[in-house]
Write the structure tokens for this entry.
Amino acid sequence: MTDITLPQPSTPASQATVVEQSRAVAEVQAAVVVARANPRDIDRAVADMRDTCSRMAVAERAFWQVPNRGTGLSVHLLRELARIWGNIDYGVRELRRDVDAGESEMSAWAWDQQTNTRSTRSFIQPHARMKAKRREALTDLHDIYLSNQNTGARAVRECISTVLPDWFISEAQTVCHRTLEHGEGKSAEVRAREAVAAFEKIGVTRAQLEEYTERKVAKWEPETLANVARVYSSITQDGIPAADFFPEKVVQVATKPAQDEGEVQA
């Protein structure tokens, strides 16, 4: 019989590493025990969700919208739903950064500690961004951090959506739509005026808004206001450039024909 010797790591783990690994295992076990000892109250969660989603501050951040890519529920709403549902751990972590290759290895997760349902997303995030349909490398550390976090937030959104019940998410979406349409008691005129003022602070003019919605501000209906709110949230919360929604117009100036050399000046 031939003895088989498993390869051993060239450098043994330090005492601090062993302690940290043991602490992490104990923390996971404790989280499961606590979650099962304190199960969620579904009726309370539904009531809290309806109350939260009926508030304009939440509804205005509940959706994202990107030109030519559609719309959907934002990570802000799904984080709020995870908090209300309870016993859910989620997050995003940068596992490795390779400056020479210009990329980071990322991992996002959502874990229902009560049912032990876990969803993960692992991906490589390049240190680059698209600008004017061209890829532009990122070198500033803050820009790289923001790029990683933006993509990580979208991955967390997908993870949370897979561990929460579909019916819970669907009802939250319905309540948010209703809140945006009725405005939490504010008239359409007041909401339109507030929307114009908010967009002006980020460099979008009233004329650009009217061109985008194809109607005057005074004639904005609840559906238009809801669309405008999604656009504002996408720009201010999700980092979508305002130019994607409000492209600048190229003005062509007609040039005067060149005068013939033989033409007599008047």
Summary: The CA atoms of residues 64 and 71 lie 5 Å apart. The longest helix spans residues 15-37.
